[in-house]
Amino acid sequence: MTGTNGRPGAGASGEAVRADTVGAVVRQWRAVRPDLDTGPMEIIGRVNRCAALLQQAEDAPLRRAGLSRPEFDLLGALRRTGHELTPGELARETFSSGAAVTKRLKQLTERGLVERRGDVRDRRVAHVRLTDAGRELVDGLLPDQLAYESAVLSGLGAAEQGELAGLLGDLLTQLEGRLGGLRS
Fold first, then answer.
1. Any idea where the HTH marR-type domain is (predicted)?
2. Residue 108 to residues 82, 94, 115, 139: CA-CA distances in angstroms?
């Protein structure tokens, strides 16, 4: 069996298929469909597997604070922008649906972490801001969360992390620019 560069077992990058779970899937596909280029699977499959593992682990500091990642993302959006946002703006900032934002805002309001106020000109519009407790929670959690994320990435050196961040940034830029066209 040959890879895309003609070398046995080589993937799209010309390297041997790695010994991770996606590598095993790729080897199985190559055994039954050697005519297909499985190179994209090596990248997309690994990105998806990494995302799944990170979601399974959940973020330890957030979990200890009783927050989910999506809830923290809402609080973080309010903190980093430094001003009130509408639920629609929060949905865009956090890549969430409006319904999901509404549900999370209800929970965060009940916990006293955010406040909603109606717009004086348009009653249909709400503005959301952090309470002092919400701001303190975000400011207290962020250093621990960043330390946790650093520990997760500690198997990669600084140069590798920089390279990976750059490559993922390039991919994300492409996807954000073209994904709408790919869905149709």
1. 18-173
2. 18, 15, 8, 16
